[in-house]
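User: Here's a protein and a ligand (MTE). What would the complex look like?
Assistant: Let me lay out the input and then the predicted complex.
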Amino acid sequence: MNTWDKVPGMVVHEREPYNAEPPGAALAGRPLTPVAAFYSRNHGPVPDLAPERWRLRVDGLVERPLELSLDDLRRCFGQTEVTATLQCAGNRRTGLAAVRDIPGEHPWGAGAVSTARWSGVRLAEVLAEAGPRPEAAHIAFSAPDVSEVAAPPETYGGSVPLDKARSPEVLLAHTMDGRPLPRVHGAPLRVVVPGWIGARSVKWLTRVTVSDRPSDNYFQATAYRMLPAGAEPGPGEGVPLGPLAVNCAVLTPGDGDRPPSGPVPVAGYALAGEGRTVARVEVSADGGESWTRAETDPAASPWAWQHWRTTVELPPGETELIARAYDSAGAAMPESPAAVWNPKGYANNSWSRVRVRCRG
Ligand SMILES: Nc1nc2c(c(=O)[nH]1)N[C@H]1C(S)=C(S)[C@@H](COP(=O)(O)O)O[C@H]1N2
Ligand SMILES: [Mo]
């Protein structure tokens, strides 16, 4: 095993803080991503919190501020489970960086996305116990990890609107695939906000604050926002990223692979927008002239990705494989990365393209 007990094949974008994605083949065809292959995105050193001493504070615009131990969370609230995919806003950034440089951001391929079975307590139940006041509109999450990405350095945080926070899929999770959360994934407790960018699923959670406005934390107010081309990040610039849009990627073959010509199996994942399902995935081997419909696995839950596969007939030499998905609201992935390019390189959901060179 490797750093943080990850598989040796992890593509490590940064050692400290640890930022790594699994190779496509480690994700392909698996409804749940093994924890040892689950991507990891960190903005500062990974905290080491002693579970016995750890407490969760619930404060702000509430009738009854709370201080909860892990034991309180396990004993006083219902325990639920949600299979959910996390996708980093930077997933597939390389496709945008190929259009125009995106300095200072990790060049994530299509592996900044993974799926686990999370268990814990519904955030809605904890909020109900605290009793939000009528002015409550946003729920802020705080963690102790300090990030030097912010200037001056700041602890990590973010927020979601009250409606989403109260939605039954949003968990305070202490368990990942049946085991206590690993340290690198947020032990002892993290938020899981299914259907939203990974940045809102705050790890090492220590505080939930009920507010009448979004969090002013750097990672809510300045980073993870969609900026117009040419804009500089700054507090309140652009729009905060939240719900994910339909997306998909080819996982196998990988870019640069050299399969034998003839029938070549192609596989990948697709994710629908929030509250939607994947309606169709199509693959083209002729630049988008013609498309083959892929077979899609059923989703493990409404919050999980779907794997898909098909076979295409490839001649010897170089071919570009393209995949695109549609969701149940009819939303399509845009064809060109140039159309969705943005200064921080977030939310690339343009057609997935992989170059292969078939052996004759
Ligand atoms: N406290 C804290 N929470 C965090 C982060 C972080 O750096 N610190 N990174 C966020 C981002 S951007 C993503 S994509 C997910 C990644 O979760 P993972 O490392 O468990 O895959 O965690 C989110 N929660
Ligand atoms: Mo992220």
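Summary: Residues 123-130 form the longest helix (8 residues).
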